[in-house]
């Protein structure tokens, strides 16, 4: 395994290379080679990730309420978000999977890659301490947290728009992705909202949900 390449990408050099190898070892590979998998590291990494992201949100977004902080954390500390981090660092080139998983493109599966990120967080913690683990987490999730905080209150826009449009009876409200741009780990979605086939507004966002909320907000702003 080319440790130097992945270490350069994640911005951390391991003193104990075996920790990094373990973090990248899926259970399927571990079973075939009679070695320890990354499952236990993943367990600890999940807790470290929750703690560090919670602390960061608490310290940097003072105006958010408890419920809003919870929503931001849930959106960022999830499989889809961690999968993007893994893609950004090309973890699929390094993750060790068994023959059956390899035949099924297992090294590209979102769940396997997301788990490897959590395991890597724990590996960094054991090798370099909590501060180093925190650097890795924040450098990779800072932008996602920022984007999430911008849209944390947007759930109301779709609800408000629906209620307004249905004041005089049922209507058909439809949200459609009309464009995707940017690399896989940093996509921007463009969504249009229609009512009974009539276009109301178009919105952009880093996720489909955010783009839908932005389209709904603009529709309300335009008076539907």
What would the keywords be for this entry?
Double Stranded RNA Binding Domain, 3-stranded antiparallel β-sheet, 224 residues, 11 helices, Ribonuclease iii, N-terminal Endonuclease Domain, Chain A, mainly alpha, 11% strand
Notes on the structure:
- The chain is mainly alpha-helical and 224 residues long.
- It contains 11 helices and 3 strands; from the N terminus they run ααααααααααβββα.
- It has helices spanning 3-10, 17-23, 27-33, 39-60, 66-76, 79-88, 99-103, 110-128, 130-151, 155-165, 208-221, and strands at residues 173-181, 188-195, 198-205.
- Strands 1-2-3 form a 3-stranded antiparallel beta sheet, covered by helices on one side.
- β1 and β2 (188-195) form a beta hairpin.
- The longest helix is centred in the first third of the chain and has 22 residues, at 39-60.
- The N and C termini lie far apart (56 Å).
């Amino acid at each position: 395994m080319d440790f130097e390449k992945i270490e350069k990408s994640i911005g951390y050099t391991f003193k104990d290379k075996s920790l990094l190898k373990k973090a990248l070892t899926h259970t399927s590979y571990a079973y075939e080679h009679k070695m320890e998998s990354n499952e236990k590291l993943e367990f600890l990494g999940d807790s470290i990730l929750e703690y560090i992201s919670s602390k960061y949100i608490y310290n940097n977004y003072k105006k958010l309420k408890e419920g809003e902080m919870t929503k931001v954390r849930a959106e960022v500390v999830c499989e889809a978000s961690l999968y993007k981090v893994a893609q950004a660092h090309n973890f699929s080139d390094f993750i060790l999977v068994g023959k059956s998983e390899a035949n099924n493109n297992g090294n590209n599966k979102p769940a396997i890659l997301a788990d490897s990120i959590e395991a890597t967080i724990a590996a960094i913690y054991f090798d370099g301490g909590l501060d180093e683990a925190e650097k890795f987490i924040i450098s990779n999730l800072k932008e996602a947290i920022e984007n999430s905080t911008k849209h944390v209150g947007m759930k109301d826009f779709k609800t408000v728009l629906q209620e307004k449009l249905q004041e005089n009876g049922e209507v058909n409200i439809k949200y459609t992705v009309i464009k995707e741009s940017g690399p896989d780990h940093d996509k921007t979605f463009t969504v249009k909202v229609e009512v009974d086939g009539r276009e109301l507004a178009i919105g952009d966002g880093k996720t489909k949900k955010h783009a839908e909320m932005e389209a709904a907000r603009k529709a309300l702003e335009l008076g539907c």
